[in-house]
From TrEMBL:
<dbReference type="GO" id="GO:0016853">
    <property type="term" value="F:isomerase activity"/>
</dbReference>
<protein>
    <submittedName>
        <fullName>Sugar phosphate isomerase/epimerase</fullName>
    </submittedName>
</protein>
<dbReference type="Pfam" id="PF01261">
    <property type="entry name" value="AP_endonuc_2"/>
</dbReference>
<dbReference type="InterPro" id="IPR036237">
    <property type="entry name" value="Xyl_isomerase-like_sf"/>
</dbReference>
<dbReference type="InterPro" id="IPR050312">
    <property type="entry name" value="IolE/XylAMocC-like"/>
</dbReference>
<keyword id="KW-0413">Isomerase</keyword>
<feature type="domain" description="Xylose isomerase-like TIM barrel">
    <location>
        <begin position="15"/>
        <end position="255"/>
    </location>
</feature>
<dbReference type="InterPro" id="IPR013022">
    <property type="entry name" value="Xyl_isomerase-like_TIM-brl"/>
</dbReference>
Length: 259
């Protein structure tokens, strides 16, 4: 299986990512949802002209959106926002998007955790039903406890996946959001549920660099051993200007994949 490498970045870097040699790009879902009709038409034309696949979306929540607690964002607002995002994602050929958004799913102090879990399940079902109509999968992602107080490890993500019980809902494993030596095991434990992967340097969440001291090979080998999804996106902080930093990150991962 030839590993495919992508990068999470706004659409302004689309052509640069293609020139560098990435296999796909992962765009912010919020960017798609908030574009004007004209801006989206222009992006779609760029994708058709350049041909770099838009496989996935990340960053699907705005800072104001909340899905848990006593005063979540109203369903009507969520449906309108995500309806636009999903429809446009389908037109671009997106295959899946992850549900991260630690701030959106934080459980407010004093709010019942069982009630919050029920809210989360209802939200993911709503989103997955929208996505299914566009032929898109949805991935539940665990995040570091420093970023959220809900779904902070693989077991919790799997429990939510099982509770949601939708055919187009899977799991996303991000090497940054667990101890780096634990991430390969999580990839294997996900099995057929694994729909997407993210990677970044564990120190500072920077894009991979030649001198960052991180061994990325075990994580990439685990993806190969799993047999799916056969791809990984770099997600994190650019250590410099986009083109040189993105080119170095891709070279580092390709070298690790050959080990």
């Amino acid at each position: 299986m030839k590993m495919k490498f992508g990068i999470c970045t706004p659409s302004k870097n689309y052509e640069a990512a293609a020139k560098i040699g990435y296999d796909f790009i992962e765009l912010p879902g919020t960017e798609l949802a908030l574009m004007s009709a004209g801006e989206f038409a222009a992006l779609r034309a760029r994708v058709q002209e350049t041909g770099l696949p838009v496989i996935s979306l990340n960053a699907i929540f705005t800072p104001e959106q909340k899905i848990l607690g006593p005063q979540p964002t109203p369903w009507a607002e969520l449906c309108a926002f995500f309806g636009t995002m999903v429809r446009r994602a389908g037109l671009l050929g997106v295959r899946q998007f992850g549900i991260g958004g630690g701030f959106a799913r934080d459980i407010p102090e004093g709010f019942d955790r069982a009630a919050a879990a029920a809210q989360y399940i209802a939200f993911v079902r709503l989103l997955s039903d929208m996505a299914q109509k566009a032929g898109i999968g949805v991935s539940i992602e665990y995040l570091r406890a420093a970023e959220t107080n809900f779904i902070t490890d693989f077991d919790q993500a799997k429990a939510m996946h099982d509770a949601v019980d939708r055919a187009n809902v899977g799991l996303l494993v991000d090497a940054y959001h667990s101890a780096f030596d634990v991430a390969p095991g999580n990839v294997l434990r996900a099995g057929a549920r694994l729909w997407h992967c993210h990677v970044a340097c564990p120190e500072g969440r920077y894009w991979p660099r030649r001198e960052d001291g991180t061994d990325y090979a075990p994580f990439l080998r685990a993806i190969e051993q799993n047999g799916r999804p056969g791809r990984v996106s770099i997600e994190g902080n650019a250590p410099g200007e986009f083109e040189p930093a993105a080119a170095e990150a891709l070279a580092v991962l390709k070298a690790a994949a050959r080990q």
